């Protein structure tokens, strides 16, 4: 029995989807435990190119069963579209994808409120994906949520009426349009009818799997520094992203987690507001253009920066990372010199990430180290020895400084473009 959590060690989009896809071959269960369809995980394999938002990225391995735990929030329209898309692509998810009825439902008012709150915050906006994530988790913890289990009785109708009475008042006060009870009820009853074949309480299935020695792969959404508690609050997401969240989100006791894979991009990106200490602002620079990416969920341009080792080190410590998966090393090819932030100082004194808040992070002095780059295209390399000496040194510097070995090195977006050490 192994339980492997795959977590992003930065601000999301580290390449978790790809890592989960290539690790899934030896797994029985692949599971999501947090977040919602704010996640966008890219998978490129023999079936094609996919941007997955809710279904576990390990579903492509035909030996796996996919689980969406109660810790995930579900926009049914998005999930149904994703299931249909995967079935059409020949992945065949029916009978091997189960969604916890404990999971909360993203309602139309959650998405409307997400947008209205963002607009009210103006320049201080979080830069959310506007998928209703903050409002649905707020309702969950304030006992106002609607769960799939409510649809098994008229509890859904009862709760919807109360919520619409509350939410319509806020929506109108903020300049939005009233939602009509009948229309929302009928739309969501329709989604429930279509999702019903996938809804199943996961408790016994998970417990039996753990006791009978099955292998679990837990796929985190977002990244360590978007975690509500340990991220750069208030520029965070609304769910816990560290592996312990899998305990509440799936019903797996923490002591069962055997491995934590920290997926780390060879540089840094961030989407939305909040501090990014090593950010590169010169949009005309070679490195800015090289690092540039388009967000998988919203299509926004990702902010970019040099690798920040204090961030990766903190993620390793916080989540108990046992091995690192370093992605996008191929993107660094062609740079004369690579900069790496090795630590932070405040008034000349060493500080850790955790010693400063989100606003303080804009003021820390960054300690930079310059290392020599390499010119070669490394996308065809499949062994560590095939990498140029400077690329090998870059990898070694990261594992020494972060405190966990680099076991996988990404040299391209496709599943097979991976070096295993
Ligand atoms: P996730 O949210 O952590 O799953 O990451 P995203 O899919 O949002 O963003 C990662 C991006 O990097 C995607 O476009 C991936 O296809 C791409 N990617 C992942 N690993 C590598 C790699 O090793 N090299 C290259 N060139 N691209 C990669
Ligand atoms: P994956 O799983 C990158 C960011 C948003 C915003 C903040 C809050 O693909 O790595 P939210 O919609 O969650 O209320 O937005 O969190 N964010 C992500 N950034 N990757 C993600 O997911 C993200 N999910 C949320 O950009 O700054
Ligand atoms: Mg992503």
Q: Which residues sit in consecutive blocks of at least 5 with pLDDT less than 50? A: none
Major β-sheet profile: 9 strands, mixed
CATH homologous superfamily of the largest domain? Adenylosuccinate Synthetase, subunit A, domain 1
Query: In which range does the helix fraction lie?
Result: 25-40%
The SS-based structural class is alpha/beta
The rough form would be described as: globular
Please work out how many helical segments DSSP would assign. Answer: 11
CATH class term of the largest domain: Alpha Beta
- Total number of beta strands: 19
Mean pLDDT: 97
Spatial order of the strands in the main sheet?
7-5-2-9-1-10-14-18-19
Strand content: 15-25%
Ligands bound, unique: guanosine-5'-diphosphate, 6-O-phosphoryl inosine monophosphate, magnesium ion
CATH architecture of the largest domain: 3-Layer(aba) Sandwich
From the N-terminal CA to the C-terminal CA, the straight-line distance is: 22 Å
């Amino acid at each position: 029995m192994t339980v492997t959590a795959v977590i992003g060690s930065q601000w999301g989009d580290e390449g978790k989807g790809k890592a989960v896809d290539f690790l899934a071959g030896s797994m029985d269960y692949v599971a999501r435990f947090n977040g919602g369809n704010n996640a966008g995980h890219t998978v490129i394999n023999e079936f094609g190119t996919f941007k997955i938002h809710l279904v576990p990225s390990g579903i492509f391995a035909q030996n796996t069963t996919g689980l969406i735990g109660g810790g995930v929030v579900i926009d049914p329209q998005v999930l149904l579209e994703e299931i249909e898309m995967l079935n059409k692509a020949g992945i065949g998810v029916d009978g091997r994808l189960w969604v916890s009825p404990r999971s909360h439902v993203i309602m139309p008012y959650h998405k409307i409120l997400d947008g209205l709150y963002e607009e009210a915050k103006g320049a201080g906006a979080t830069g959310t994906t506007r998928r209703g994530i903050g409002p649905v988790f707020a309702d969950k913890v304030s006992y106002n949520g609607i769960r799939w289990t409510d649809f098994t009785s008229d509890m859904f109708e009862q709760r919807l009426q109360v919520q619409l009475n509350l939410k319509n008042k806020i929506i109108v006060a903020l300049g939005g349009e009233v939602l009509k009870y009948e229309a929302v009820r009928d739309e969501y009853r329709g989604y429930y009818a279509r999702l019903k074949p996938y809804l199943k309480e996961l408790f016994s299935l998970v417990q039996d799997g753990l006791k009978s020695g099955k292998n679990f792969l837990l796929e985190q959404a977002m990244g360590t520094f978007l975690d509500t508690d340990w991220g750069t609050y208030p520029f965070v997401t609304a769910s816990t992203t560290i592996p312990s969240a899998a305990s509440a989100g799936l019903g797996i006791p923490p002591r069962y987690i055997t491995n934590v894979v920290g997926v780390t991009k060879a540089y840094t990106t961030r989407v939305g507001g909040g501090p990014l200490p090593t950010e590169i602002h010169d949009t005309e620079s070679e490195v800015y253009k090289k690092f540039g990416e388009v967000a998988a969920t919203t299509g926004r341009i990702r902010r970019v920066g040099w690798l920040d080792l204090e961030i990766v080190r903190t993620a390793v410590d916080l989540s108990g990372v046992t091995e690192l998966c370093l992605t996008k090393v191929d993107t660094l090819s062609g740079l004369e010199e690579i900069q790496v932030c090795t630590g932070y100082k405040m008034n000349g004194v060493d500080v850790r990430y955790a010693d400063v808040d989100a606003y303080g992070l804009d003021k820390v002095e960054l300690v930079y180290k310059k290392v020599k780059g390499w010119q070669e295209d490394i996308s065809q390399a499949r062994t560590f020895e095939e990498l140029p000496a400077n690329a090998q040194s870059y990898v070694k510097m990261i594992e020494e400084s972060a405190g966990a070995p680099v076991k996988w090195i990404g040299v391209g977006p496709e599943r097979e473009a991976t070096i295993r050490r």
